[in-house]
Design goal:
The chain is α+β, with helices and mostly antiparallel strands. 43% of the residues lie in helices and 24% in strands. The chain has eight helices and ten strands. Strands 3-1-2-9 form a four-stranded antiparallel sheet. Strands 5-6-4-7 form a four-stranded antiparallel sheet, with helices on one face. Strands 8-10 form a two-stranded parallel sheet.
Length: 241
Amino acid sequence: MAGHSKWANIQHRKGRQDDKRGKVWTRVIREIMVAARLGGGDLDTNPRLRLAVEKAKAANMPADNVKRNIDKATGNLEGVHYEEIRYEGYGIGGAAILVDCMTDNRVRTVAEVRHVFAKHGGHMGAEGSVVFQFKHCGQLIFAPGTPEEKVMEVALEAGADDVISHDDGAIEVLTPFAEFEVVKHALEAAGLKPELAEVTMRADNTIELTGDEAQKMQKLLDVLEDLDDTQEVFHNTSLSE
């Protein structure tokens, strides 16, 4: 991970997400529906659904909307059936990209994703071609200036896998997927509030792109993220304009 630019990359990403708030509810609703359909509508026994509902609350989604979509997914109301599908591909400079989608029309979605890759300098890969470069895990990022020793003590005691100090002062906590909520709650209870906290696909290593290559890669990522069926886009690049 390119430590020197960790904090800048996080702030850059958050800023771009803030500019796309109109799509957040749509994506959260789909996540709620799939999580409830696969694991049931009980928050106490469905950790994926709990995370989705937390995202909904963070996006200021009314509780009635959340309940209605859980009911749709669990058969109490009629609703659309979404399926999850992941596409893998290559971006500028051979960068690895994962595109997680939820769709009610697989044929439409794969055509749209393939078109974006081809139009913006990348290409789709076969299943398994790049996913091995990522790890499914919990990730919490703390701002520079956060007391490192306290973060490390609380996180590791709660079950974190690793605590990484980056060159720019940012602190990154990595957890197993199953321990993410426990570690997050322990850190918050200790007065340590992360700037970013999510379950993600984290690249094992990153490649740095600058100048024209970085701009082209950002354009490719933006267009992939803007597709209606896209939920998340993961990549292994550090981008510097």
